[in-house]
Write a structure and sequence with these properties.
The complex is a heterodimer of chains A (409) and B (153). Chain A is built from 17 helices and 14 strands. With 409 residues, chain A is an alpha/beta fold. Chain B is globular and about 35 Å long. The chains are: A alpha/beta (409), B alpha/beta (153).
Chain lengths: 409, 153
């Protein structure tokens, strides 16, 4: 990779050991992908729940912070934590998990990172704009920012996103390049979903068809522009099922006003997707009618989603636990507008700053006896099988009803 | 020893020799593994219940989220990590994870590499030459599916 004067100085350690560690990591990754140089980025978003970091990752962070010779150079924020400290006991989380989280938070803070603890920063912190180069570290955040915002980011795992924050740049490869942003797969949708679970299922189908990180699906046929929450579920599921980082919706997303803008006119229609396909994916998870827990998470809920849940909770008393997970930026308004009170009056719990599958989900399952889980998040059902859950995908309304009756219909 | 060497477009890490676990399936440390027991745990994964510790994984593509970027490093700290991971296509997260976790990696072949490396074969991965080859004349141990727990948390 070609380095400028400042980058050479970082690599030589002239700007501190922290910057050197960061740029060494970035060069290793950039060289692997054939990046020719670095591109400056304006903001970074770091995924770092301690289930992923483990003791080793926290020690790595602490060593960086203890060096005291480097802090982030650009606004650098975080993905959800592995707990809501106020609700840790209710989740059955062990003291060692919380201690690891506190140590990670301390190390990040000493490096200058702002602990936003959110995977919906594009809704609640600062959305990246068209052409803006960023280093974002949550797949749902990347796909939304790239596709809906027209921003430019690769999937930046925790170490790489933090390195980008510490150096102010990232290797120029992948979705930072014009050539990578053209469509490679063309799909036609014959039915426009209305429920968030259906949007997620559709996203999952597209992700599976796209198949890998380097494929860019372009989709035609939606009969209206989706809302931000719909695109949130659609993109998060697509990224989870397919490792997809960018999609185009013809006439809707900014880079695809016309099919030809992204080269889609040169592609054959690979597949048409209809309501039956969405139902089939959802049905593939319908293995039990009884549930142990309802979880709304992955991604964190917006204020509007919480409002809808609060409305659905009216007049109910839950037999099963219902968890509604949001960001620390949204929670105060959720409290202020009475949504939290209404959800909790029915027996639900509103949590902030965490994500269910990033919070020692396997241990929670074992401690709480939660196995059969109902959710309206296609991303969550895709992930939780490996954690020993039986996840089932249904509408928000059906999930709330299941919390009341114990049965998912 | 000699056999066909398959050349990858992308390579990272050190030369390793080991037994290959091969499947035309994806990989995500979060989605697919029980990292405490060192086995594939996702029920629908083609390598379910197989131990990945010190094995050379030969798989189709990287899946899912960003957690693997930290997780390979964490797995390395407990000596419960694959020796190498070889992909048809890789995403940025797996490469970042290999970089931090010091796991050898190859990706991007002219053929479907999962169709050319026999499951259970002894193979050599050499990132310097960007190659993977089956080692002829080396009897591999039987592929086990027994879960073991190693190392401190």
């Amino acid at each position: 990779m070609k380095l400028n004067e400042e980058e050479r100085a970082m690599l030589a350690g002239e700007l501190g050991s922290v910057a050197r560690t960061a740029i060494e990591h970035q060069i290793k990754v950039g060289a692997f992908f054939g990046a020719t140089d670095f591109v400056p980025v304006t903001q970074a978003h770091v995924m770092a729940d301690t289930e992923s970091l483990g003791q080793a990752g926290v020690v790595w962070l602490e060593r960086l912070a203890d060096a005291k010779d480097g802090r982030v150079r650009i606004p650098t924020i975080t993905d959800p934590r592995g707990t809501d400290f106020d609700k840790a006991a209710m989740l059955g989380q062990a003291d060692w998990m919380l201690e690891l989280e506190r140590r990670a938070i301390d190390a990040f803070t000493r490096l200058g990172v702002s602990m936003t603890d959110t995977c919906i920063n594009y809704q609640t912190v600062l959305a990246a704009t068209r052409g803006e180069h960023v280093a974002f570290g949550d797949t749902g955040v990347v796909i939304y920012s790239n596709s809906v915002g027209g921003a430019r980011s690769n999937f930046e795992g925790g170490p790489s996103a933090l390195s980008a924050g510490l150096t102010g740049r990232t290797p120029r490869y992948g979705y930072h390049l014009d050539a990578q942003r053209n469509a490679t797969v063309r799909l036609r949708v014959d039915w426009t979903p209305t429920q968030l679970n259906d949007w997620g299922a559709l996203g999952g189908i597209v992700g599976r068809l796209a198949g890998n990180y380097w494929q860019v699906p372009v989709i035609e046929g939606l009969d209206r522009a989706p809302t931000s929450d719909e695109l949130k579920h659609f993109g998060a599921a697509m990224a989870s099922f397919g490792s997809t980082a960018l999609f185009h919706l013809v006439g809707i997303t900014p880079e695809a006003a016309r099919l030809s803008d992204v080269g889609g006119d040169r592609l054959p229609v690979l597949q048409r997707i209809g309501e039956a396909d969405v139902r089939a994916l959802e049905q593939s998870y319908a293995v039990d009618s009884s549930i142990d827990v309802v979880v709304f998470s992955a991604p964190q809920l917006s204020l509007y989603e919480l409002r809808t849940i609060a409305d659905l909770c009216e007049g109910r008393q839950f037999k099963k636990p219902l968890l509604a997970v949001t960001s620390p930026q949204v929670k105060p308004d959720c409290d202020r507008f009475g949504y939290t009170k209404r959800i909790e009056a029915a027996g639900g719990t509103v949590l902030a700053g965490m994500c269910f599958y990033q919070s020692y989900a396997r241990e929670m399952s074992e401690t709480k006896g939660w196995k059969r889980l109902a959710t309206n998040s296609a991303k969550l059902v895709n992930i939780l099988g490996g954690y020993g859950y039986v996840p089932m995908l249904a509408s928000m309304e059906a999930c709330v009803q299941a919390a009341e009756t114990g049965e998912l219909k | 020893m000699s056999s066909t060497a398959f050349t990858a477009k992308h390579a990272m890490g050190r030369r390793v020799v080991g037994q290959a676990l091969v499947a035309h399936d994806g990989f995500s440390a979060r989605y697919d593994l029980n990292r405490l027991q060192g086995v594939f745990s996702r029920p629908t994964h083609k390598l379910v219940d197989q131990s990945y510790v010190d094995r050379i994984l030969v798989l189709d593509t990287a899946k899912g989220g960003v957690a693997t970027a930290w997780m390979l490093h964490e797995m390395r700290s407990r000596n419960m990590v694959p020796s190498a991971i070889v992909f048809n296509t890789v995403n940025t997260i797996l490469a970042q994870g290999a970089a931090l976790g010091d796991v050898a990696m190859l990706a991007g072949f002219d053929v479907d590499i999962t169709a050319h490396i026999p499951h259970g074969a002894m193979v050599e991965v050499d990132p310097v030459t960007h190659t993977i080859r089956v080692l002829d004349g080396v009897d591999p141990p039987p592929v086990e599916g027994v879960a073991r727990v190693h190392g401190p948390r």
